[in-house]
Structures are given as structure tokens and as C-alpha cells.
Design goal:
Oligomer: single chain
Helix content: 25-40%
Structural class: alpha+beta
Radius of gyration: 17 Å
CATH superfamily: PPM-type phosphatase domain
CATH architecture: 4-Layer Sandwich
CATH class: Alpha Beta
Number of strands: 14
Length: about 280
């Protein structure tokens, strides 16, 4: 079961290569839709946008931010979203007690497949983050590995639901540095885990956020760090709340345009789910 039929949803996704990078290593999963390898490889400065009203098929969304240089980053993110396609039916039929198991199975299989590519290509590292949002009725389930995020906006307040798997997040939690100092720290992008880690090095462990009961006027934002490196949380909230009056497509367009205007130093990928 996916969306609660009593609630109405406006949903949209966007991905853009940004102003600095030559290739887009991001990808997204939008209710069964992903960005094809051909589309990723042929991207210019134009955004790829996908949207739907009332959820179309249901409520499963994911943003992936690949890494590895050359063309390897997009290989990893493509593997992550294509693997998720195989799990669509499992998510659709899941009850609340099984969802964590399904997410873990997905993450482990995607991780295994990326590790196989590392061996095949003979490179040191290929990897990707993921940030996932799934609905069972009106209940939102959130999981992530890496530093791609899911935000929840309600009554003009924004809250990060995911946990950053970064060295910097550890330093902040340990009181070694402040959040303000972290903004320009040279290790701010150093990940402590991602998809594409061999079990002998580290067993991946998906983070599961506390569930959220969706209400009218709620906004959920999934994004790669191409957004969060360019805009702070309050700016993201301000833009999303204002744009949500016109629907989710306006939300993702306005957020991506602002990220590009702020410098667009990385690929930017955003999914917005607006509860009407």
C-alpha cells in the first residue's frame, strides 16, 4: 500500500549538472521513473524534470549522488536506482513491520552490485549515497546512507530527517567543531559510509529516521548536496513554502534555480512531495 487516498499529493523531481561539473553523477527514482544512462550522458545545462499529481503509482522516491570520477559516479547512482526499480512491488505490498527489512535488502544488493563494478573496472572506489522516502498510507518512512538528505517542512519550520554519514557530522556530534565551522571545513564531504563498500572494509548500515504522519500542507524534500552546499536550511524552507502554492514542480524548479544562481558547484538533484 502506498499513499493514503484521503490525502492528495503533488510530486516532482529535477536534476541538473550544475555550472562546474562536466557530467552528472546524480540520479533519482520517482515512483518507477529513473534518469536513463543515455539521458545522463547527453545532459547539457538543461534540467531533467519529472512530475505527477496525486502520486501516480504510489509513493516511493529516492535521490542518489554518485562518486568515483571519470564516468564511474553515474554508474554507481544508476545501479542504485535501477536496483530500486526491482523492489518497487515489494515496497507497494509492504506492511509497516517489513519496510526496514526491505530497505536493508535493497541497500545490501545495490552495494554488492557496485562492489562488483569496482572489481570489474579495477578502480579504488566507486560509490553513491541514497536518501529514500516511502509512504504506507499517510505514514512517511525515511532512510539514507551518505549525505543526501530528506527534509520535512511543516508550519514554516524545516527539519532534517536523515543523518549525514560524514566525518564532519561526527566532529559536530563530538563537540570538536561547531556547525558554523563545518561549513568550510576541508573534510566536509568526507563520507563515513556509502553504497559501494566491501564488507571486509565496513558493513553498511542504513539509517532509519523516526516515521512522520503526513498532514495537509506538509512538504518533503529529498536532495543531493548540490542543493545543501549552495543553500542553507532556512533558505530551502523559505523557497519551498513560497513555491508550494503552485505545486511541487515549481518547488523543485525554484530550488534548483537558486542553487545554480548561488554558484552551482555540484550536480543538483531534488524531489519534492507536497501534501495538499
Amino acid at each position: 500500500m502506498f499513499f493514503n487516498k484521503e490525502l492528495k499529493f503533488s510530486c516532482a523531481a529535477v536534476t541538473n549538472v550544475g555550472k562546474v561539473r562536466k557530467n552528472n553523477e546524480d540520479n533519482f527514482y520517482f515512483d518507477g521513473v529513473t534518469v536513463s544512462e543515455e539521458a545522463i550522458n547527453s545532459m547539457t545545462d538543461e534540467s531533467i524534470i519529472h512530475s505527477s499529481e496525486n502520486g501516480a503509482k504510489g509513493g516511493l522516491y529516492c535521490v542518489c549522488d554518485g562518486m568515483g570520477g571519470e564516468s564511474y559516479g553515474e554508474v554507481a547512482s544508476q545501479i542504485a536506482v535501477s536496483t530500486l526499480c526491482e523492489f518497487g512491488e515489494k515496497f507497494a505490498q509492504a506492511d509497516k513491520g517489513k519496510l526496514k527489512d526491505i530497505v536493508t535488502q535493497y541497500a545490501e544488493l545495490a552495494n554488492e552490485r557496485i562492489c562488483e563494478k569496482i572489481t570489474e573496472f579495477g578502480v579504488n572506489r566507486i560509490g553513491t549515497t541514497y536518501a529514500l522516502l516511502s509512504f504506507i498510507g499517510s505514514t512517511a518512512y525515511i532512510s539514507n546512507i551518505g549525505d543526501s538528505r530528506v527534509y520535512h517542512i511543516r508550519s514554516g519550520n524545516i527539519k532534517q530527517l536523515t543523518r549525514d554519514h560524514t566525518e564532519i557530522a561526527y566532529y559536530i556530534a563530538a563537540g570538536i567543531i561547531t556547525a558554523e565551522e563545518a561549513k568550510n571545513h576541508p573534510r566536509r564531504h568526507g563520507l563515513t559510509q556509502h553504497l559501494g563498500m566491501f564488507p571486509d572494509d565496513m558493513k553498511i548500515s542504513p539509517y532509519f529516521a523516526q516515521v512522520v504522519e503526513a498532514k495537509a500542507k506538509d512538504i518533503f524534500i529529498l536532495c543531493s548536496d548540490g542543493l545543501t552546499d549552495m543553500l542553507d536550511d532556512e533558505k530551502i524552507c523559505q523557497i519551498a513554502v513560497s513555491a508550494s502554492k503552485k505545486g511541487a514542480e515549481t518547488v523543485v524548479k525554484n530550488l534548483s534555480q537558486e542553487a545554480l544562481a548561488a554558484g552551482g558547484r555540484d550536480n543538483v538533484t531534488i524531489i519534492a512531495v507536497c501534501v495538499k
